[in-house]
Structures are given as structure tokens and as C-alpha cells.
Amino acid sequence: MELHGGDEAEAEAEAEAAWEEVSVLSAIYCAQGELRLLQQSADDGPVVQINSTVGEERRLDVSLLFHLHPRYPSCPPNISVSSTGLSRTQCHDIRQKLLDHAAALPLEPMVHQLVQWFQQHVEVPEELSRGEEEKEEQCTAVLLLDHIRSHNRYVGLLERWTQQLQLTGRLLLGRHILVILQGLRPSIKEFCRLLKTVKVDVDSSGKKCKERMMKVLIETPLSSSCAHGLQGFVVKNYQSLAELTAAFQEINMTQLYQQISPSLSD
Predict the structure, then answer these.
(1) Is the model's pTM score more than 0.85?
(2) Can you name the residues that pair with 220 across neighbouring β-strands?
(3) Which residue of 72, 111, 253, 255 sits 20 to 30 Å from the alpha carbon of 7, by its own alpha carbon?
(4) Phi then psi for 73, rounded to 5 degrees?
């Protein structure tokens, strides 16, 4: 549906408001490592990460991720919460509190207010041991993607999701497109769900599409031999089977490659 003149002007004003807020936040949270701009997409809106510390007797570092949609602030930001000192359940509870508070605020720039509210109202839990849920099995998974046509958008989303879900990963681009992931099993499951439900790429006609053809080639408990094989999210191109094999050897996953190689023979 086409936007009328008034709607277009409103959309442009909202887009400007989001970027103006990013500029203001950069001035407020200006200490080293305090703020990171993870995405600068005009189509999807900016993604800002603010690292905060709460608690008095016990200090706890928490990372807050705010995705400012193109219609922001007419709709509240999407929020993610992560911390090495909290369980997934604790992070989820904090996220829900922030979302509830955001829904109660006037539809105007609100990220700074949300961070202030978080610092003033979120208490450090009595138990910081990450809980039973966070002791879930760490896994390695290898996914096979069908195609990547809109390279910058697709790769940008994959990198953002690994950050949000606290996964490490490697994207191998060649005859076969492979994504290697390491992290908690529920996080890997959520990554796969996002792949199949979010329009990450474009089809042959240029229309935005989801990754419905993605296959999980293997999911296995993280072995001690490759526990430190992946750092961050790395994109690597390969030209031949030998280079693909070498890419797995580089991260101590030769045995894993031998298990999935029959699936890559066609």
C-alpha cells in the first residue's frame, strides 16, 4: 500500500527521531565500551547496545540491546538483555519488565528513560550462579543455507542474532553455505527459528523471503577439543573442497566435518 503525503512525512519524521536519539545516547553513554551502534540500517532501523552496571554491594554488568524500528517512537523498541552473571530466565524477566515499562511510556524517544529505570529499579538477584537452566548443555551445530542473495542484509542479521543470543559462529561461503554455531542449545534453537520466520533474503525475483530451506546438518554436545574454537562471528570464503576442509581443521572440527561431509556430496 502506498503512503500518502502526510504518512510519508510522518514516517520520515519518525526515522529522523530514531537517529537523533542515537546521537543523544552517544553523547550520554560516552565512556569506553558503554555504547555500541550494532546496526545502521535505514530499512530496519538502528540497533544500539548499552552496557550498564547495577547493584551496590555486588556489581553486575548487564548488556541492553535496543532495536529502534523504522516506526519508532510510534512503537516501543525491541529489547534484549544479556549478562554473564545471570541465567536466561533472569535475563528474560528483566527484559519483560523493560518491555512492560516501555509500553506504559508516552510514544516518544524513551531509550534513556528505560536505561535509567533499569538502573534504579532492577535489583541484583540473590543468586548469581546462572541457575540450573544456564547449566544446559553447550552445543555445536552446523546449518546448511539455501542461498544468500542480499549479502549485506543477510550476513548482518546472522551476526546480530549471534550477539543477541550469546552464540559464537562462523559463516562459510562457497559451493555450500554453512553456518557453524556454538552455545546453549535453546539459543541455537531460537537462531534456527529466526531463520525460518524472519525475511532474511530476497528470492530470484527480488522479493524478500525467509530461509525455509535451511537444514540442520548436525547438532552435537560441545567437545572439550573445540570448546575454544570459535570467537565472535567470522565470515570466511572458500573456493574448493580442500579449503572447506581446512576451515574446519582451523577450528579443531575435523571430526565434525567428516560427519557432515556425506550431506555435502551432491
Answers:
(1) no
(2) 140
(3) 111
(4) -95, 15
Strands across the sheet with 35-41, in order? 35-41, 45-54, 60-67, 78-82
CA geometry: angle at 215 spanning 80 and 83, to 5°? 20
Most confident of 27-41, 86-100, 104-118, 202-216: 104-118
CB burial of residue 155 (10 Å; 0-12, 13-18, 19+): middle
Q: What is the rounded distance in angstroms from the CA atom of residue 183 to the CA atom of residue 169?
A: 9
- Contact status, residue 215 vs residue 146, Cβ threshold 8 Å: no
Interval 130-148: pLDDT, tens: 444 444 578 899 999 988 8
First to last CA, the chain: 43
Q: What is the distance between the alpha carbons of residues 37 and 107, in angstroms, rounded to a whole number?
A: 22
- Nearest residue to 82 via CA among 27, 162, 156: 162
CB-CB contact of 82 with 166 (8 Å) = yes
Cα distance between residue 122 and residue 264, in whole Å: 49
